[in-house]
Amino acid sequence: MTAITTALESARPRVTGGTRPQVDFDDFYALVALNARYAAVLDAGDWDAWPEFFVEDCVYQVLPRENHERGRPLAVLAFESKGMLKDRVYGIKETLFFDPYYQRHLIGTPLIHACDGELIEAETNYAVLRTKCEQMSDVYNTGRYLDRIRKTPAGLRFESRICVFDSEMIPNSLIYPI
């Protein structure tokens, strides 16, 4: 089983109406702040800072809701390490050719499914707006993040971030991280 398949299995939603995990305010606030910084970095186009949100052995995946719900690991983007994220950054900055655009991330309040002291499992809704030069902004991508966040000496870092987008299609191509 690959790291991506393992992350996909562990990212199944566990929404229940009953008990909720015990999370202290500091951990909750740190998680909200992590998502806010993540959005700010991507919205500013600070691509070199993006991989630093992840641990070395991480999973970052962007896949359609249909594939996620059916347990199919086929993803639009799938990376299995911080090194692969850095390769994507190099591609964005140096090798890919595309019409530049701006992103604006709107990230909801995280729903924490589990917290064991060192690891937080959470789900957070997101919407990404895209603006191209001299065009109206449009809704580029919506969905939810399914996250496993590790507490490290440097603060919270993503062990896995699975971006499950609602539509079966994405416009043109996916260049920047979601």
From TrEMBL:
Tell me the Gene3D superfamilies matching this sequence.
3.10.450.50
**Pfam families per the record?**
Ring_hydroxyl_B
Looking at the record's lineage, which domain of life comes first? Bacteria
| Assigned keywords, A-Z | Oxidoreductase
MF term (GO), any: oxidoreductase activity
Extract the InterPro entries matched here.
NTF2-like_dom_sf, Rng_hydr_dOase-bsu
Keyword Protein transport set for record: no
Signal sequence span is none
Keyword Oxidoreductase applies? yes
Query: Its family?
Result: Belongs to the bacterial ring-hydroxylating dioxygenase beta subunit family.
Q: Per its record, how is this protein called by name?
A: Salicylate 5-hydroxylase small subunit
Ranked from the top, the taxonomy reads: Bacteria, Pseudomonadati, Pseudomonadota, Betaproteobacteria, Burkholderiales
